[in-house]
Amino acid sequence: MKTKILFMLSFFVTLSAFSQNRMSLVDKENFKTIALSKDQAGIPIIKKWVVPIHYKVYSAKGAYSIVEIDSIFTQIKTLTNLDIERAKNDDEVNFSVFLGGKDDFGTQVPSVTAQSFSKYGGTYYKFNNKGEIYQAIDLITVASFTDQRDVRNALRRSIIKLFGFFNPLENTPTSIFYSQSNNVVNFDAYDSFLVRLLYGPRFTAGMNSAQVDEALNKM
Question: Which UniProt keywords are given for this protein, alphabetically ordered (predicted)?
Fold first, then answer.
């Protein structure tokens, strides 16, 4: 509870600071980089969740504690205002987190996702013609990492990616959105701002690049 309170206080202080200043051109380009990704026709659009998220963690024996995963989803819930909770039954699961090798879970990891995974795992998602994400799969091959902090970094990076941030940043080495593994295990002030911005009222699923530019130019 104390950690959650500190996180919320930090976020609101950050939001206040950003709200008092216009976004810089670099900030706007960073947002466009991570928040625009191609639809079925190859057109860059905004993709985001609009439906409630019911997640479930599938863990191979001794793979990882789910306590931190619950914490990550709790923080994202605070930033996005989405309805996020752990699934009560398998039928309602639409966000699956698998901890272990693909072979550990049999048919639970669909074969169609194979091309999305490397030896470290990977992500897979589905979205409709409105740009609304409605299913996500995150696989972390825990045994492939040599350090527990790398696992924590990979988990946070891959989970937040599946909320609509499908492209990395090259100019923010301390960000969770940085293109390379960087040992980051928390959302910093800048990351929190970008997540909140995507899930704020200015941006809706399906917006194209020109529409995003129009919204950003007012900020």
Answer: Signal
